Amino acid sequence: MLLAGPVAIGLLAAYTAVVLGAGVATALKGKWATLVVGLLTGIPWLFGAVRLAKPRSWWARRYYGDRTMSRAHARAASRPYRVLVAAGLLLSLLAVASLFALFKAYRIPSSAMEPTLRCATPAPGCSADASDRILAVRFVAGLEPGRGDLVAFDAPPESIERCGTGGVFIKRVVGLPGESISGRDGVIFVDDNELSEQYIEPERRSAGDFDEITVPADHYFMLGDNRAQSCDSREYGAVPRENFIARVVFIYWPPNRIGLP
User: What is the DSSP letter of 117?
Assistant: First the structure.
């Protein structure tokens, strides 16, 4: 179809297999946001490829009218046409691969970030019927964490001992490198200045104090929004920048929660 005969069909079939295969693998891993974004990116290219069918192709003979067939003949006679089609296929594959590489999707399993990111009842501290599923963008060149960002990161080894679990945590950036952080009566102080945190409900603040610490270079002090039920930097210390994976940018499920966190 796209290029002459079997070559065009083979390229389109290979591209379709890549898109659908990646979709199946993504679905099996539960990465729903990545699946949706990938398919939305791939499908327009597939339809574009069909619309650019060669005039002698089955698709063109079956569905093209006189006017469309005339344009198809003109395209087929153009030498740059084949180069553009091949480039389009390559760019579409690169776009799909880039989306898989750039974005991460997570499900919220615990109440550590309530009510900003909700988990499903009856787990302790959870407030929703279904856990939030979120989309996060990887930290790439030019994208750096800032105070208030919600960040997915590999928990330090100390979290196993202090929290009873490890793996990927999602917390909020509260302290930046070089700052002094302390907590008194549920209030966070940064360099002795009270930090305004309107995203925290009063009943979810922790009354536990912690002494002032200085955040080391290339480290960040991370806290959950549900302070009373979050195991965070108060327990395992500041998190190295190299542990950061991605910044949370969107809630995509359930439908009533779709939007910015």
Answer: S
